[in-house]
């Protein structure tokens, strides 16, 4: 009887196990895929309250990451920060440039040579006398920009509105980080590049982002005023990066209002020039179509 009772208990325990959780398929970085080939995803960026409302009603974050960092001064007064964020038991290494757009002009730099190699970033940054820069947006298998690109008032490609290309960096006299519905009437911009998905909106991490694929990712973000960061995060998913950017204790009280994912994976690249004039480059593994650079005013 004891033997039969033991077998019956095991059978009941196995029936009580919950079903395995459903995980969405990972979203690949899309440097060489067309939008038509992408799976349909849920809306990545529902609307949030205004930034003033967020600050007025802010609650403590349950999983705010701890960080350890050190910085280097760049030409023109910007800072290059090497930082490790510790979020929910994981460490995310990030390198980013913290700058003020009143002191720097942000530029999109076209790179039309399809076999130039990942190391082309240094030459492109020197060509505009940039203090720092990162790789830009997605591109097609034909090495054309995915979506609209404007570099020094020269337009290439066409505007696309979809769940991947959900925002844009737009520069008239000052840079702005805009969502698709807000870009209307900005075709006369000096610089523009479409990218996505959105990571942070109104100070909140955008929900429903992919959380399984760990890779290098490039991003750009703003506090909603004149302060910006752009950089690279290593071995992280889109969802983890969004959480970290929304809650990280950045230097000088910087708080991200909006953040946008740029092209990542093998395309990820970073360049900066320190205040003593020395260049430092972490080139990507592959040729990319464009870069984003900051130039001292």
Task: Outline the secondary-structure elements.
Blueprint (H helix, E strand, L loop, with lengths): L1 H14 L35 H6 L9 E8 L5 E9 L2 E11 L3 E7 L9 H8 L4 E4 L13 E3 L2 E3 L10 E5 L3 E5 L11 E5 L2 E4 L2 E2 L9 E8 L4 E10 L1 H10 L10 E4 L8 E4 L5 E4 L7 E7 L1
Antiparallel strand pairs: 1-2, 2-3, 3-14, 4-18, 5-16, 5-18, 6-7, 6-10, 8-9, 8-10, 11-12, 11-15, 13-14, 13-15, 16-17
Overview features:
single chain; 297 residues; mainly beta; 8-stranded antiparallel sheet; 5-stranded antiparallel sheet; 4 helices; 18 strands
Concise overview:
By secondary structure, the chain is mostly beta strands. The protein has a domain at 97-297. Helices cover 13% and strands 35% of the residues.
Written description of the protein model:
The protein is built from four helices and 18 strands. Strand 6 (149-151) and strand 7 form a beta hairpin. It has helices spanning 2-15, 51-56, 120-127, 238-247; strands at 66-73, 79-87, 90-100, 104-110, 132-135, 149-151, 154-156, 167-171, 175-179, 191-195, 198-201, 204-205, 215-222, 227-236, 258-261, 270-273, 279-282, 290-296. With 297 residues, it is mainly β. 41% of the residues are buried. It has a domain at 97-297. The strands form three sheets. The chain has an eight-stranded antiparallel β-sheet with strand order 1-2-3-14-13-15-11-12. Helices cover 13% and strands 35% of the residues. Mean pLDDT is 82; it is low at 1-64.
